[in-house]
Amino acid sequence: xxxxxxxxxxxxxxxxxxxxxxxxxxxxxxxxxxxxxxxxxxxxxxxxxxxxxxxxxxxxxxxxxxxxxxxxxxxxxxxxxxxxxxxxxxxxxxxxxxxxxxxxxxxxxxxxxxxxxxxxxxxxxxxxxxxxxxxxxxxxxxxxxxxxxxxxxxxxxxxxxxxxxxxxxxxxxxxxxxxxxxxxxxxxxxxxxxxxxxxxxxxxxxxxxxxxxxxxxxxxxxxxxxxxxxxxxxxxxxxxxxxxxxxxxxxxxxxxxxxxxxxxxxxxxxxxxxxxxxxxxxxxxxxxxxxxxxxxxxxxxxxxxxxxxxxxxxxxxxxxxxxxxxxxxxxxxxxxxxxxxxxxxxxxxxxxxxxxxxxxxxxxxxxxxxxxxxxxxxxxxxxxxxxxxxxxxxxxxxxx
Length: 400
Fold this sequence. Notes:
By secondary structure, the protein is an alpha/beta fold. 31% of the residues lie in helices and 32% in strands. The chain contains 11 helices and 17 strands.
């Protein structure tokens, strides 16, 4: 099938598909967080100084197409591009709500455009790394090399790192549930000061659940400016007007903002699944980022997860072992799987899980657990703080 598609591509653009005769050691497809972190890490590592690296992306990465958030203790490696930091978070359930100090953690946000600008600038300083704005049409693995075909050119690489994600990767199987964390966010400016500048609303489940797991997420930049986001954990997307109605209702009735201006918008969908994306890896092609299953299945957080995996990947590459033998699976994967099984079985009780957690555990304990830095006994404490019946049912169903 790939050979026939390749032939059609060549016939469709006679004389326009230029062959690059360079044999690249590594080709990175996608200049998102994973691709740029990988290219920057390779450029800074003397082991790769003689390796030729090509990065391809259909976009010039000159727009603010997303934001990334994460929690972190103290100063971090991304602080020079962090747009805003919060020292408190607010959680609201149906019956429990509280403002929490989160020291020694802080909650941080990076704007996509700031990350792209910084990392593309860093990558451009490496003589062995090349970036080209071209859309990849096909990847074809042969015995010795991988052919990467774009709309303009054909490139050859010894190994390829692919960050192009397609939901069909995971939806063609029945063993693991596949949910989506989907959202619409408005960057708003209000006429009156209504936001607490040092408090991020981590989850507000006071909105109507309508049979799903639904919450509002608020990141204030000033007393009159914030990102207000309507987020769901569910299988299916909503009609776009449903997100807008929910956001407007929250701003007008919960935040009491009669007049506000929408300055920017962001929307997206992040996969929530324990499907083993590494099954698609080959000795020469390795999926990274969201396409590699690097998004935390239970939360969708990807940025810091990616930053922790890149150094491990680099060290593995130095061994020369086949890429198919490199995996990140650990016991936290099983915890995430049970959580997704619970949401798959009854998506309407998602708020109860988080409400119980924040009522029975501190944010610091929850953050440490989600960062996969807890020991087994700490794991049990967090698990015990969750609703026991649905998780017990999910465990028994998996076992038997």
